[in-house]
Amino acid sequence: MKRIAGLREIADQFDLFLIDQYGVLHDGITPCPGTIDGLARIAACGRKIIVLTNSGKDAAANLARLRKLGFATSHLDAVVSSGDVALQCVKNGILGPPFTTGARACVIGRRDDSYAFSSDDFELVDRPQDADFLVFAGSDAPRTSLQAYHRDLASSAKAGVPAICINPDITMIRDGELVPAPGAIARLYEDLGGAVEYVGKPRLLIFAQAVTTAALGPDARALMIGDSPEHDVAGARPIGSTLLVRTGIHRHLPEPQLLQLCESYGGVPDFLTPAFGW
To answer: Is residue 108 in a domain?
Structure first.
């Protein structure tokens, strides 16, 4: 592992930059310092940039969020979201029944929010026990506690209703604070006896989709930049190199503890930096 002060030290080593969103580029409220300039400088070097995000929303919604926060989306070649990848898996029949279009789906997420599965491709139902399958797309925490999710999901788990988690993150940043993410709700559902399919980082499929989207060929040198040893670093190992930023969900951990966490997930990065910046 090599410690670097900024991306300028390694930018010429890579053709493709896969960049996590929350905790790397922004915290959901404001851009992290240096990120807007950093993206501009990578783009100026002629490198491809793809935002690779565990998000239950589609690419258009994520681009709109980035634009609202002040990012020049012209610097981005694409956004690949776990929500979009999961939806294509269902439409292509990769997961098999009951994960099919036309099925009754209950989308679990933030109240009054919309997700990739909130579409006419499915018969949307409000009660988990009435669904053919559940979609863990978002989290209503802290407004809805894990204890409340446990209560609300117990009957569907007992009935054997399967689920798909389209954002495997365990912790997420909301209003500057760390709260349980959809992956934590999915694990709770498994603890209740429910079966869950996962689509998104750290599963290889989403990384492969990002590389395919980049269309750079088999010899392209890819760098994944993220804040999660488990999801961003360990997951990206088969497709390229990794850079872990000290911002995001583990920002308060001293470096020795952070590196221990990396080792426990098999996610020791190739590079470590304080923050995303040039």
So the answer is: yes
> Residues 210, 52: contact at Cβ < 8 Å?
yes
**DSSP single-letter state for residue 232:** I
DSSP 156-199: HHHTT--EEES---SEEEETTEEEE-HHHHHHHHHHTT--EEE-
Question: How does pLDDT run across 34-56, given as a tens digit for each residue?
Answer: 999 999 999 999 999 999 999 99
Question: Is 278 inside a domain boundary?
Answer: no
**C-alpha–C-alpha distance, residues 174 and 169, integer Å:** 13
Per DSSP, 245 falls in state: E
Hey, which bits of the chain come out as E strands?
2-3, 16-19, 48-53, 78-81, 104-108, 123-124, 133-136, 163-165, 171-174, 177-180, 196-198, 222-226, 241-245, 271-273
**Residue 138: domain span:** 96-198
Of 92, 95, 82, nearest to 121 by C-alpha is 92
